[in-house]
Structure formats: structure tokens, C-alpha cells
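Review box. Two proteins, two foldings.
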Amino acid sequence: MPRRRALPDGLDPRVAEFVEQLRRTVERSGLGVAELAERTGYGRPSWERYLDGRLLAPKGAVVALAEVTGTPVDRLTTMWELAERARNRAGARHEQATGAVPVTPARGAPGESDPGESGPGEFGPPPGEPRRAGRGRAAGPGPGSGRTPMLLAGLVGVAAVVAGGVFLLGGGGGGGPQPTGGGGAPSSPGPAAPSAPPPSGVLCAGSACTGRDAEETGCADSRAVTAKTATVGTTVVEVRFSGTCGAAWGRITGAVPGDSVRVTVGSVRETGTVTAASDTLAYTPMVAVRAAADATACAVLASGEQGCTP
């Protein structure tokens, strides 16, 4: 293992302790990052971030690491749970203080090929480098005095377009504006458009996320949370939610080949299945949501057992 860089400043002690334990576990195993990625099913760029303290490893990756290194699973998962709670508390405190999820100022376009980029960590305020930066999105301006006029101008333009559309649909004053959706059944509400651009490295928002991979789009970064959970046999099924992306997905851990998970939002459904013999988790593509409560995740096990989140 190459010498790891120092952990980000301001990292919560619980998170720092967990990352140090991950490093020790990997070092004792003698595995390189490439081999670790191959054996666990989690990509090399992700492991670089987990071990550098820039992204909290998901529970499935922790379980996979324990299995390939012969480490007691309970010890690692207990430390992971403490780290996740500490990270979530830090994020909640920041949102209460600022009134919104922070947007990190762009710092260029670091990509997966540059996992050693310096910057604050991703576990809580100050917010850190998103998982996948510079892929398909130009670096935008950070929050500051120059941003407010641009947003106001954009909102004015949108309002003008909407007003024009309503006028045309209403026939220019003959019968007034027509009700949305006509006289048919009301359509299911879609996700609200974000009021500001997503952070650098987050590649979709709202309906643009439906059907896409949460890891690859950066939606599964440290801001994602487990909104609902249930246990089916020995398998845990979760609704994972990203407020940044306005999307949810289903995930199962402690699974075996043949187990599957689905997430449902209204009439939209996505599924994922454990296929490889070494896998213990699976997750679905994302579905756009207004709130995490709109999504339900269900596990269908190879044994025939089934169950869903509340």
C-alpha cells in the first residue's frame, strides 16, 4: 500500500477513527487498491476516496472488505454505524445553521484519474469534494455576490416563458388560463426543479436522474441518507435518498445471489439483483422524488421471502 495522505482537517473523530481502521485492515491484508476493487466489486476510484477520508464507504463495501480480508464483520460495521451517525449529525447541524444544503465552490475539474486532489473532506461541514467531478459538467461559480444576479435573471426569464405559455394555452383571454392536466386524471407530481445548480461532480437532478446509477452520477455521496429500512430474513432493505439530486433508490445488504430489490415511486419502478457469487448487496437505478417518503423499497429473496419498507 502506498503511503496515504493525511485525513482532511475538521473530520469528525468517529469518522477519522473509522477511516484509520479501514486503512489498517487493508494494509494488514497486503491487497493493493486495484486488487481490493476487483475482489469487493467497488471501483478503484471509490476505494481511493474511502481510504483518503473524502467519502464514507457504504455499508456494503465495509462488509465486502471484511469478507475478503477475513476481518470480523461486526467490528467494522459497528464502527461504520458510529461514523455514519456522526456524519449525519454534522450535516444536520450545518443545514440548521445555513438553512440549506451547502454548495461547494468549484475547484477546477478533478476526475477519477486524480484521486489525490487536495481539499476538505466530504463527511460534513465544510462540504467536500463530490465523488465524481468534471464529468459532463463545466465548473460553475461558487456562492458569492456574482451568483445572486445570475439566479435572479434566470428566474425572471423562466417566469416570462411560463407566463407566455399560460397565455397561449388560455387562448389569449377567451376563457382564462386552463387547469393543468385538463379534465383527465391528475398526473403524479414530479420532482421539483432545483433552485440552484447541483454541486460539482453531481451529474443529474430530478427527473434527469431516473434510471441512472447513484454511484456513477455522484448522488450516492456523503449527503445521501437512509430514509427507510426494513429487515427481511437476514437481509436489510433500504430506501436511499439524495436531497441534492432529488432522487431515491433501493438497496439490499447481507444478500445472496438471486436476491433482488426494487424501488417504487407512484407508477415508476426500478430493480436490482445480486448476481455475482461474491456479492452481498445490490441497489436499483434511481427514481426522481419530491421527498424520501414518496419511495418504497422491497426485497424479494431467492428463498421466497419478501418484505418492504414502511
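Next protein.
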Amino acid sequence: MTSVSTGGMVASSTGGTVTASGRGPFAPSRRGPFASSRRGVFAAPEASRANALHAGAWWLWALGLAVAASRTTNPLLLGLLVGVAGYVVAARRTDAPWARSYGAFVKLGLFVVALRVVFSLLLGSPIPGEHELFTLPEVPLPDWAQGVRIGGRVTAEQLVFALYDGAKLATLLICVGAANALANPARLLKSLPGALYEAGVAVVVAMTFAPNMVADVVRLRTARRLRGRPTGGVRAVLQIGLPVLEGALERSIAVAASMDARGYGRTARVPASVRRTTNVLTLGGLLGVAAGSYGLLAAEGAVYGLPLLGAGLLAAMAGLRLGGRRTVRTRYRPDHWGARAWLVAGSGAAVAVLMIWANAYAPEALHPGVVPLEAPELPLWPALSVLVGLVPAFVAPKPKEIV
């Protein structure tokens, strides 16, 4: 038996076996025998092709947050919803082109808030107010335009109402941007029913245009900055816009050639009765979904909105299943809806349901008063219900870039 000491490490060889200092060849791990199994059960796995989260789960989660945002004008709750969406995006997005568009949606939301305030200043508001801030020059209008005002008196209540209204719309846009940044458009297209495949291709192409355009603009601005050229101003915008337009045209030609090579648009023959039944079920189901969604988004339509939405979804799914017979297509490695997808989608649905319920028992907390002006307060239980939307940040598979 020989022993060699090197920098605090003792290697001993006995019959060809080499072990580290203080630990034999069969020494247990310092983390314990069950540490790896516990970590495997409770920790989110690394994302791969086999365990990738279903794209539809991200959209259902984001739509749940959007429904919750539509039920309140409290800026504190809206800011909490934006924070939840932003945290999940930061924790689970990849470096793909569509994942970089979240910042553009945030900027669009801020622009919507500013635009809503400007319209309130210029066109007035039906909200009465006692705290006058300033008076703009008023443009005289003819008699047939009564009820419309350009300029005039501006009050604090008017501006606060415009800020609340714009913040709600901005939060809706940011929630949609979160889904756009997290869900892979190609995988979402692959999961669509056969009857919606052609329409889904058009929607996915339209959805991927904005992220790719944002990526092109960022790339061109970086190239100009490295060359010592200005990136702001009208001239720079014009010089950046031409290459972006050229890249969009080249991308559209490549997409059209790829779609034609894959047999896009070819359909199979089905009986006329099946086509008529499909049309009736699909159209009726979509009308039910639209009416139910309006009921959920409206202030007092949650009672009839949910049954209409459920009936419409069932009819639409039956019609889409029948309509899928006309589409000649196959799926390569279809995405599976697993337990983690249920958790992600269920967290968004839970946020929406809890916020609708909170709107029923505490409407004053979700809609702070404007006349008279009141400082908004953060209600405890609605805030805790919004935090349920953080579930995807802990259960969804981690992208390889942030592991």
C-alpha cells in the first residue's frame, strides 16, 4: 500500500483502487443518500424537446392574467400583475427572437398610457372634477358636434381617471406580450386542430413578424453604434428602416416557398353534410365564446359569461374536430399536455377566478374612487390571488441559458 500527499489531498492505492483523502471508495455523498431524489421531485427540470411546456399553457396563463387586469383599475394591483408577468418572463424565457419582444410590449403599454392621457387633455372627459389644474384654449365647434370638446378645463380627477384607464389597457397588452415571449409560435401552430391550421399559419406568421422586426432593429442599431454612427434621429430611423423592410420581404418569400413545398392549402374531400355541420358548430361555438368572453370582461357579466363560454368551447371543439377531416397533414413529435402544463394554465385561471370573485365582494378596493379623489390601497386578498400567477416561474422547465 502506498500513499501520496499533494496539497491536502491524499491519494492511496490499494490493489489498483484510488480514493480521495478521508473518503473511501464507497463513502456516501455529503448531501445525503436522498438529496438528488428530493431535488428531482421539487426542482424544475432543464427544458428539452421531450419535456418542453405546451405553448397553449403559456397563452392560457397570460389570458388569465389579462382577465384579472380587466376586472380592476387599481394601479397597485395592475402594477403587481405587470411585475408577476415580468418576473415569469425573466425566469423562463429563452434567447429566441420571439422572446425578445417583451420589452417592445412594455414600451407599447407606456405609449398607450401616455396617449390616453393626451386624449383626455385634448378632448376632455365626462368625469366631473373640482381640482382644476389648468385651462387649455378651447376650439369652438358647430352645434351638430355638441358633446364633443377640444381643449378647455383640465382637472386632477380627469387625469387620474385617464391614468387608471390607460394602465388597465397597458397591462392587458403586457400580458399578451408575456405569452408572446414565452410560447414558441411554431410549437403553438403544431398544436392547433387541423381545421385551424391554415388560419393558424397566418396568425403565427403575423405574430413572429414583430419579434423578428424588433431583433432586426436591435441588430442594426448595434452595428451602427459599433461603426460610430448615430442611432437616434429621423435620418437614423430612415437608414435603419430600409434594411428592416428588406429583411421582412426576404423572410416572407422564404416562408411562402417553405409553405408551398410542404403542401400548404391542399384539402381532402368530405361529404356536404359534414361541411354544413362543421360550419354550424364552429360558428355557433365561436359566437358563444365571444359572448362568454365579453361577459367575463364586462363589469357585471360573470354570471352568464362562464356558462356561455363553456358551451361555446364545447361546440367549437366539436366543429373543429369534424373540420379537421378536410386538412391533409401529419404531426411530427406532437407536444403533450403534462402535469406542469396543467399547473401553469391553472395558475392563470385561478388568478382570473379569484379576481372575479374579489370584484364581487370588494368592488371598492378594485376600483378606487376618482370623484372625490382617493389614494389607492393595496387589498390583501386580491394581491395574494395575483401572486398565484408566479407558479410558472417555479414549475415550468428552465431554459438552458439560465441553468
